[in-house]
Amino acid sequence: MGNNFQFLEIIFFAMVAIFIILRLRNVLGRRTGNEPTNTNNFKDHKSSKSNDVSNVVSIGENNFDEKSSKPKNKDPDIYEIDPTFDEGEFLQGASTAYEMILTSFATVDFDTLRALLDDDVYNDFYKAIEERNEREEHLETTIVSINSKEIIESNINDSVIDLTVKFSSEVINTIRDKDGELISEGSHGPDNIIDIWTFSRDTRSNDLNWKLIATQSEN
Description:
The protein is of the alpha+beta class. It has helices spanning about 1-25, 80, 85-105, 110-115, 120-135, and strands spanning about 45, 55, 140-155, 160-175, 180-185, 190-200, 210-215. The chain is globular and about 55 Å long.
């Protein structure tokens, strides 16, 4: 009986692992079969990886060619080092990652945070969670809606692409003490939040996922 239980337990955890891997592949980046051979942070934070601002290309609305959906800027851009890049798919993935990261920060899901954050940002999130745990507080986050998302800047450094996304969202954050009593909550409904997050990916790496390397908020 005990051996059967252990066997079922192993199968269960294997299924969970497969689910997480498939979910993350759908979140940010996946192979299409057409990749080139060399394919491929909660307080304000800037990772050391984002300090090099060479080849910065603004990707605002006025910089796109309506027919090609590519920047009009003639400087080297993301499409030259990753011809398979799709802005719509990236923004959808970034939006999903945004929700997953906010939710994982509240629910203390270190595995998901580890998969989606770079080392510096992960360490900041980890410290913030530990400080919250020391105060014996519990955070509840409800993402009511993501009203808009847009790429506002790209930074290309050799094979590394950094894309900065501006999110406009409505979020309800509720904090409770160890006894479940409310410490703070949105008294007038959800807060309107403006977050500016930078995602990065090395196109020469076998890891196709984008990772969050910097965060800041306009609120």
